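@channel sequence for tomorrow's demo:
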Amino acid sequence: MSFVILPERPGPADVQWQYIDFGGNLPGGLGGPEQRVNRLGNRWACTVILPKMEEHEARYWIAALTRGVRLGVRWKLRQRDLDIGSPGSPVILGDGQAGDMIAIGGMTPNYPLRVGQWFNHVQDGKHYLYKVSGPGDANADGEVIAQVEPPFRAEGMDGDVLLFGAPVIEGSLTGNGLSWTVDNAIHTGLQFGIRERR
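structure tokens (generated this afternoon):
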């Protein structure tokens, strides 16, 4: 599936992230302990607030968003105050990678994973978005076991590409009535949401 690539400029004034959780808590019967039920499929959504912009920028953004309603969108993430450095060419190390601990190879030797760092697992052209949830440094061979959130939704296969340098969120547009005007963009800025489809 082809997604509409959203413009990179102007950058967002704010991005509000939401963790979409398909699990739940079951209340204990007759005062018993509550039980947590986890289910696979957790994913990310965000609300993007753009600053005021010039008319030509507004028209470009509105055209991309309007087309994106039908086709879905892909938007490059900015990781402010996080020096990504040079992660190398990370890939899944070994077939059958699943859960929230993932074996990675191909990183720059001794590369430090940062807690909160975004990355994509790319499989069959689909970009699944994840966040590093625990510290870890690649060893001298460029290998590391990474703690991630949410657990992998698509089983990682040996050699699957992992994008740490320029991760994206791709999915459906949500919120704000899917309505944008040039006047709003010029005077107050635009707002939209993206929710991962898979």
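heads up for whoever presents: The chain has two domains: 4-77+169-196, 88-166.
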